[in-house]
Amino acid sequence: MTIQVSPVVEKTKTTAASQREAYWATLLELAQASQSPVKGLEAVREGAIAHVHTQTLPSTRNEEWRFTDLSSLMNVELSQPDRTLTPKAADLEAYAVPEAAESHAVFINGQFSPELSSLGAIPESIFVGTVAQAADDLVAQLGKLSGAEEGFTALNTTGFSDALVIHLPKNQVLETPVYLLFVTIGERASLVQPRCLVVAEANSAFTLVEEYVSHGETPHLTNAVTEFVLAENAQVKHTRIQGEATATFHIGKTAVLQERTSRYEGLSIHFGGHVSRHHWEVYQAGEQTETVLNGLLYLRGEQTSDTHSAIALTQPHAQTRQLHKTIVDDRAHAIFNGKVFVPQAAQMTDAGQLNRNLLLSPKARIDTKPQLEIVADNVKCTHGATIGQLEADEVFYLQSRGIDADSARKLLIYAFAYEILDELPVPSLKKRLLNQLHIVR
Fold first, then answer.
1. CA–CA separation, 97 vs 45, rounded Å?
2. How confident is the model over 101-157, as pLDDT tens digits?
3. CA–CA separation, 304 vs 83, rounded Å?
4. pTM, entire model
5. Are the beta carbons of 193 and 223 closer than 8 angstroms?
6. Distance between CA atoms of 305 and 276, rounded to whole angstroms?
7. How far is CA 207 from CA 167, 224, 254, 288, in A?
8. Residue ranges of domains in the chain
9. CA–CA gap between residue 342 and residue 381 (Å, rounded)
10. CA distance 253 to 309
11. Using one digit for the tens of pLDDT, what is the confidence trace for 263-276?
12. What is the pLDDT at residue 439?
């Protein structure tokens, strides 16, 4: 049998591929032009550039990106961000976190703003500062975690202009939460690459909140990377909030390395951006480690948001729990792909994963793929996914109790989302997000 391939189709495919390659090359040029010299990072950045050169802008032909189409990004002509722009303090009052009044750092277009930051509540024994102020041994840990060769992660390593480094020495417990606000502004579309490194040594503990926002409707590309290194028995609570403008493209990576008996609690809340993606990559390197990942997506309009997670267990007696919820309205599209790897060495593992989805519109779309890859034979592992709509009977029941239909719907959505929002470790943030997402009771 002879198979003929249409030259027109082949030409179209070749043209699309070349366009992605050209756009990817432009991103690399912007990244290299934006990088600031950091002593000790030369070799890491050279390696990252090499990784970027071997890749291209992902397409839906890539298995990891097959539900997330970045072709609309190629219509945006990006430039370097304007780092002379500084919003007034009054413009940021909406994002104030009273619990972190003296422990917050603000980044404008990827650059640390000392005028808008306040770190007076941080003890001298704990370091919270920029990469230029960090000790050499801390700088040396940037870009060393698993997954550093992934395209957008390598692009960030190539060209981040500034980075925040947090170091908790042994036995240090910081009661005050640390709040990081990353603001993207400017009338020209730009590539902004925030970067953060957290090193928590043995028996240390603290709470970190990251929030990403943007002013205006300019279609920026935010490419953010945060790395966590948790030593023995370190305890970290981490919240990541992405509420950028609906024209923004957002790519985020959270990489975590856990040593023996450490505990990482991650909470991700995304409701902003035109196309967004967050990738959690957790590597459990010690026995009796605990990982908790909770997530909430609330999408409307034409939004697309993709959540990928990968948890690799390498030692016995590990425990992981993941609950990811999505609320999708209008023509929005949510994607979830969660992976848990349990090799032969990870005996006595207890892993649970659940993805629950709520469709509010007949034109909304959800693609979900929970995955367990198990080789060990003495484990307890579960996973599952559900997709449903608001039950008419439930709405009717609330109406029969004197609640109007619109309030009944909001109450049911509130109940669905609150299981995740209730895990927020900062009360003022919980209150603000409930109002911001319009799901208050």
1. 35
2. 999 999 999 999 999 999 999 999 999 999 999 999 999 999 999 899 999 999 999
3. 29
4. 0.94
5. yes
6. 5
7. 13, 19, 15, 21
8. 17-285, 392-441
9. 9
10. 10
11. 999 999 999 999 99
12. 62
Q: At what angle do helices 427-436 and 405-421 cross, to 10 degrees?
A: 150
Residues 237 and 207: beta-carbon distance below 8 Å? yes
Q: Residue 260 corresponds to which tokens in the numbers above? A: 């023996």
75, 203 contact by CB (below 8 A): no
